[in-house]
Amino acid sequence: MNSSQFREASHAAIEEIIQYYDTLASRPVLSTVSPGYLRPLLPNGPPQTGESWPAIQSDIERVIMPGLTHWQSPNFMAFFPASSTFPSMLGEMYSAAFTAPAFNWLCSPAVTELETVVLDWLAGLFALPECYLSKGEGGGVIQGSASEAVVTVMVAARERIVQRRCGHMEDGEEKEQKMGEERIKLVALGGEHSHSSVQKAANIAGVRFRSVPAPKSSGFRVTAQSLRQKIEECKSKGIEPFFMGLTLGTTNTCAVDEFEEIVAVAKDYPDIWIHVDAAYAGAALALPEYQYLAAPLAAFDSFNTNMHKWLLTNFDASVLWVKQRRSLTDALSITPSYLRNEFSDSGLVTDYRDWQIPLGRRFRALKIWFVLRTYGVDGIQAHLRNTIKLGELFHSLVVSRPDLFTVVAGPAFALTVLTVNPEKRGAARGARVTPASSPDPNHEAYLNDFTSDAESQYLANANAVTKEVYERINSGGEFFLTSTTMEGIFTIRVVSANPMAEEKYLRRVFDVLVETAEGVLAARERGK
Ligand code: PLP
């Protein structure tokens, strides 16, 4: 493809992408293809002679489009959003054009230096404590995903504690032996509702993992007390907690662990590296009304959030800050002669290869820079506030029908988590309709007549109804929602943080929930 063919092809591709975005809302959000749909649509191998761009492009509609789940659709209210915007796509285009795997500063100084500046801008936007800025001992780096960020800091934490235990020893076999003995004792901790990436990171880092309880009674949050208790329990068994993964905005309910109280725990156990995973909800720190959550980070060791979730930047861009960048470079810097150069040796430049797992890296700062400049702080804040407000609106609709729904969590950071009542309750529309044989756990009479059998029967019924409603909505194709189960309660999650989210879509998904719940309950009633 020469430059004039590229001009023509890229214009055609951009037109198609624009058309795709303009028609997203009217496309069924979920793909309906069956597993293995794609292979029969393609030849058995690559073509012997090259094809023209129009021939290739036409397969986007024929082959790819049917198998796409439309994450950018305003009807996508599942998981957390993976947002993408036009300025961020332009960043990707330039990044692809320049392709410069800038592992060392020298490999492309602009790639490294823009990243450092943009990460300092973001630290300011999120009101992170000064210790995370590059002018001090800390700094930020862009990782591919939150999972990569967590495994990277966990390895740094592991090596930090091992060095603290063995750093005084002379290099040699005896030291190596002692370091091995220390590593074997290590245990990483994560909250009960921390993302699974914390446990995965422990598997990769070759350490044990223990979960810190965060029950419904604590709002699904890790409390200082439960953390202390778990640390002491581990120590009493001869295993050494060295890492704790806290969460700002858990995947299940967007709960925020008890940061302020955990500051005292961090002081009492300075060998435990405390990381805050704010993959999704960290975006809210761009709003002054949420910045109180950033202050306790001064007592912790690292923090990450994903630009590619709620912050208008396409996958992949997870921003990670550490308080002591030396902890990363001490653990990850290995410099064979072919990677040495006078700039790196001078210590005056950053070589981001020492802050991450891979050697090479993409020019991801460009798309973040484009997004920040196109939207400005005002535009980003307006997007966050708008989607939070839509979440509150949706929540207000749900609580207006206590006969049908129970809110389990939220509204929090544009997320509401709900269940469908197994029998229509009368509270909203007159008399209580729940028969005594199927007690309403919120009702005084039920509480007085409480038996564990009645409770588990109620839960089983509620789960069956909620699951049926959830499955019917997703198979309807108009909306995509996700479910989660906590303490045996099957719930439906609805997230309104998509860049295309609007009130009409939230009102419509609520109407669909009501229609579906009423249909399921009526069918069950008829079947009795
Ligand atoms: N942490 C939290 C709280 C999440 O909700 C998620 C994904 O939704 C992740 C981590 C994993 O993110 P990534 O796909 O960037 O690894």
TrEMBL record:
Keywords: Decarboxylase, Lyase, Pyridoxal phosphate. One of its GO terms (molecular function) is carboxy-lyase activity. Gene3D superfamilies: Aspartate Aminotransferase, domain 1 (3.90.1150.10), dopa decarboxylase, N-terminal domain (1.20.1340.10), Type I PLP-dependent aspartate aminotransferase-like (Major domain) (3.40.640.10). InterPro entries: Aromatic_deC, PyrdxlP-dep_de-COase, PyrdxlP-dep_Trfase, PyrdxlP-dep_Trfase_major, PyrdxlP-dep_Trfase_small, Pyridoxal-P_BS. PROSITE patterns: DDC_GAD_HDC_YDC. GO terms for biological process: amino acid metabolic process; carboxylic acid metabolic process. Its cofactor is pyridoxal 5'-phosphate. One of its GO terms (cellular component) is cytoplasm. SUPFAM superfamilies: PLP-dependent transferases. The modification N6-(pyridoxal phosphate)lysine is found at K309. Belongs to the group II decarboxylase family. This is Aromatic-L-amino-acid decarboxylase. It comes from Mytilinidion resinicola. The lineage of its organism: Eukaryota, Fungi, Dikarya, Ascomycota, Pezizomycotina.
